[in-house]
Amino acid sequence: MSEDLKAKYGMDSIKVRKGDFVKTIKGNFEGRQGKIIRINRKNWVFDIDKLTKKLDDGKLNYCDRVIGTVVYIPYHTSGCIITKLKIDKNRKAFLNRKKREMKETIKLNKDLNNE
Q: pTM for this structure?
């Protein structure tokens, strides 16, 4: 997560979802930003709307795709940071619950240190 989101929600990481905005920080596409459009949790990759390539004649045409079509490049989750979250009611409830739990943990630690 980006620094401002870490400060806002009090979390270092969160699972990505379709609709979140991310920024790439590693690899050939470093610095690009885009919206997540598809997630493959089995391989820990997702597709970003701005990372595409065009199939051409010189490459092996896999999956019987027509040459010249634009395909998304799968990007690994470790090479990006979340810059904007798509908030729905379930995610909002999750973030509020985690924030409340963090406050309770900090309060308990302070109480234990004062004793």
A: 0.77
